[in-house]
């Protein structure tokens, strides 16, 4: 099966289109500082990204030396609210598109593919990032980690995208950098393409067997041109 048989491309955002860790790390550390906790380097924080803001901040608090084993709910709630407000102020300062993303998305759109975003990031941050990186008007649908009762690796966001775009699962491909993307795709019986350069908790994405695994975003065009076959 080539990408030619597909009409809808479902893209993950963080670690796939955008290297957002510099700004996420800044907001995490500002939060920890405010709470008088240890801060962390970007490489460490990178491995906590992938399951949405609540998980990110819970992982940061748990890793902090000066905290008890259990996380008091009130502390997590306070930290989350601080994080969301710090991140609001730096959502697209040092975040950057990965190489080839803009050209490839534009080429895909021009060839008639319908594009959507399915991220675990809170919905409120999607539009500012897309605007900051001049990626507006490309995506027909944008679902965040808090848009629905479930987020990736649950298949609900993918099923919802199919429903809202009025297409079948066979017409879609999920493209992402993390096991959450590949597992959600498999659970929805949707083909998947993994990208090796993003954030996957320092694990090899190949373990989760996406139909394709690319090192560069513009390799999507190779499949589109029918050079490659989806396994
Ligand atoms: O921000 C996150 O936790 C992950 O976001 P993603 O689903 O776009 O990779
Ligand atoms: Mg991702």
UniProtKB/TrEMBL annotation:
Pathway(s) it belongs to: Organic acid metabolism; glycolate biosynthesis; glycolate from 2-phosphoglycolate: step 1/1
EC number: 3.1.3.18
Ligand binding (Mg(2+)): 12, 14, 177
Catalytic residues (positions): 12
Alphabetically ordered keywords of this record: Carbohydrate metabolism, Hydrolase, Magnesium, Metal-binding
Enzyme class: hydrolase
Domain of life of the organism encoding this protein: Bacteria
Reaction it catalyzes: 2-phosphoglycolate + H2O = glycolate + phosphate
Cofactor: Mg(2+)
NCBIfam families: HAD-SF-IA-v1 (TIGR01549), HAD-SF-IA-v3 (TIGR01509), PGP_bact (TIGR01449), PRK13222.1-2 (NF009695)
UniProt function note: Specifically catalyzes the dephosphorylation of 2-phosphoglycolate. Is involved in the dissimilation of the intracellular 2-phosphoglycolate formed during the DNA repair of 3'-phosphoglycolate ends, a major class of DNA lesions induced by oxidative stress.
Family: Belongs to the HAD-like hydrolase superfamily. CbbY/CbbZ/Gph/YieH family.
Name of protein: Phosphoglycolate phosphatase
